[in-house]
Amino acid sequence: MTTDPETRETSPQPEDGTGEDTGRTEAGTAPGGEDQDGAAAAPAGEGAAAPERTEAEAELAAQRIERERIERRKAEKQGPVEAGTKLSGKAADLLAAVRAVESGEKPVSSAFREPAPAPRRAAPEPERPARPVTPPQSPTAPGTELVAAVRALLTGAGAPDTLAPQVASVLGETADARLQADPWQLLRVAGVRPEQADGFARALLGAECRPDDDRRARAMTVWLLEQAALAGHTALEIPALETALTQRSVPDPDAAVQSSVAEGEVLVFQDALETTGPGAAPVEGPAGEGEDEAEERPVRVLIGLERYALAEESLADGLARLINSVPKENGSADAWERAARSVSGAAGELIRAAAGHGLVLHTGGEASRIEPATLLYAARDLGVRAWAATHSPAARDALRDRLDLPDTATAHPAFTTVAGLLSGAEGPGRDADGALDLDLLIVLDAPQLDVESAALLTESLPDGARLVLSGDPGVLWSAGPGRVFADLLTARACPQIASRTPDPGPIGELVSSVGIGELPQVDAPGKEVVIVPVRDAREAVHRTVQLVVDSVPRAIGIPSQETQVITPGHGGAAGTRVLNAALKERLNPGPGRFGGFDAGDRIAYSPAPGRTVQGHVVTADAEGLHLECSGEPVVVPKERVDQAVRHGWAITAHQAVGQRWPAVVVVLPGDAAQALSRPWVYTAFGRADRHLSVVHGVEQALPRAVAETPAKPRTTRLPLLLRGQLPTAG
Q1: What are the CA-CA distances from residue 511 to residues 3, 322, 477, 505 (Å)?
Q2: Which helix (H) or strand (E) holds 206?
């Protein structure tokens, strides 16, 4: 490694520092800055319906319909949550609360200090409807009268009136009345923090506003679970939730949780834990008491939001259906075997596995992507309706380039994006039953699948279809809740094919070493890897701009527009905001006449939470900001620009997952030390194809993070849900 593209080789001599603006904020942001997708999530339902729906609108509409169908399906499974064990204390109280609500009776638990509220209405039990063939029309914006009423209420209480459209969209037709009756409902709006909701409540309620208000306790419980979802959890264990409630000045966390359960705002789950197998603690007891011992197996009690609970259960159902089903007879067994023998290594193993199984997992780095592509074309040669889906148009186009497909194959019939597939904007479309009209679906960058997207995909697959999930388990997990790919690898419920194709060159060697917890010096005779030590954040910004604008183009031959800067967070002295401002000044100076943007600005656009696509600004008019992203025109309404568009010369590693650039400059200022982890470093370094520069100011924090800081754990239920349907899983 060298200190600069034009200087001699040396070892890194960086500087340590303290973390700043690298953790999650109270608005529910991702490690390293604001939100994991790189732009503030747009409030649900915001904005007026356009004459023609965008891809993002179509995708969100399709997801809404699919969630409604999942909820109706789950309504057929009426009855209390199965305990599967003997419970006492808090767990028993919560279970009693759930059963009481579901039966319409008054809760009998002594932990309730007030009369029980009215029970939830029973859900209907319709027959399972066919999946929608086309996405529904996007919802219309809230009426002007409603928005005006909400705005008057907010203004009177000293809250920003700009929140009015979002509040009206989130709370519905009676938003003003709901907010008047329960001012803490304001917390349901994305970006609103507890102290802001408390201030609004004090303005509305006056002396009646108390920290022990039951409405506040319930709203805080739901808000904390939403923040947990932003951090990747699909549920929280009760002690963790109650600790968080205490930190938010909720006087009686136990009562807050039970009240939320009784009101039906959250769900309680009891998952029996394994007492045998690797890492499991056996339950000790006298010989001959096996039956009692089984009944007293330990459990964990979790609290979660219905939205993610239904998605995770639907995902488990869909995966079990695929695993337990026999794939359609697409080509004879001999034909599949001939296809497998025609290629070598893991590609052949992958073809054999897909031939006889409904679900297959494939792991490997960037170079291994050729293996699922080989499966794709082998299957299509056999007459199988096979498709491959990536998580971004850029990744789709990069795969096309790797396969040496012509430029006209940008919308190649075998390639699509996950968002386009779900919305119907791309891909094979759906059959008469509403299922995707295909026999084999290969999803690349599978670690980026959150539980909701994964549930929508699996539920959309027809019986007998094959699903292959392919990805690098070392990269950062999904921006949304869940760890689907990692959970499936742990469950071992289906064939797993591990690629033996290494990523080439010094960058591949470095990234592979990071994956096993090592940070070696690599021999880079062509200046493929360069270390640039810096003393402070100011110098880090200066050196980054110098690298992008001058050194890398001149010494390496890669132009500035093909160089991507990656940094841990949006804030801080060397976060994306500061770096983008400095890079814009050099690469595309201008007054920011389009809401802070100028024509030609490089941008990162978030069409939906958890998704980021790159492009550039074309122009702006009354319709909004006109962008071009992966060759496609995009119009962002002016009211969404602040939430959905950022400058994109510098982005976070979460935004960069699934994409690669010829040159990457990774910036590690001293205040980023606390945000670093092995998956973050692995992801950031692995985005470089030909050249990697590391602006290094964290001293020993970098090797320490690589060696000692794995991915942050996420609380999920998928492994246990699968174990209940697949006795061999686990």
Answers
A1: 18, 34, 17, 10
A2: none
- Exposure pattern of 547-584 as b/e (b: 16+ CB <10 Å)? bbbebbbebbebebeebbbbbbbbbbbbbbbbbbebbb
pTM higher than 0.90, yes or no? no
Containing 497, the helix (H) or strand (E) segment is strand 496-498
Amino acid identity, residue 242? E
Query: What whole-number distance in Å separates Cα of residue 675 and Cα of residue 321?
Result: 39
- Measured between alpha carbons, how far is 171 from 164 in angstroms, rounded to an integer? 10
**What does each C-alpha distance from 84 to 75, 202, 310, 716 come to in angstroms?**
21, 45, 20, 19
Average pLDDT, the chain: 82
Q: 167, 159 in Cβ contact below 8 A?
A: no
Identity at 406, one-letter amino acid code = P
The two structure tokens encoding residue 243: 């600790």
Chain-centroid distance of CA 346 in Å reads 28
CA 690 to chain centre: 28
pLDDT digits (tens, 9 = 90+) for 302-345: 999 999 999 999 999 999 999 998 888 877 889 999 999 999 89
Q: Is 650 helix (H, G, I), strand (E, B) or coil?
A: strand
CB 294 within 8 A of CB 300: no
* Euclidean distance between CA atoms 30 and 24, whole angstroms: 5
Nearest to 101 by CA among 77, 84, 122: 122
> Tokens for 627?
């962008």
- What is the CB-side half-sphere exposure of residue 11 using CA atoms within 13 A? 6
Q: How far is CA 74 from CA 138, 312, 541, in A?
A: 24, 11, 52
Q: Using one digit for the tens of pLDDT, what is the confidence trace for 658-674?
A: 899 999 999 999 988 99
- Give dist(CA 307, CA 44) in Å, integer: 14
The answer to whether 352 and 340 are in contact (CB under 8 A) is: yes
Checking DSSP bridges between strand 440-443 and strand 386-390, what pairing results, if any? parallel
For the chain, what is the radius of gyration of the CA atoms? 26
In our burial notation (b when 16+ CB lie closer than 10 A, e otherwise), range 494-530 reads bbebebebebebbbbbbbbbbbeeebeebebeebbbb
248: tokens are 């938010």
What is the rounded distance in angstroms from the CA atom of residue 241 to the CA atom of residue 234?
13
What's the token pair of residue 238?
């009760």
Cβ neighbours of residue 317 closer than 8 Å, sequence gap 6 or more: 459, 725
Question: 128, exposed or middle or buried, with CB in 10 Å at 0-12, 13-18, 19+?
Answer: exposed
Contacts of 578 (CB under 8 A, 6+ apart): 541, 572
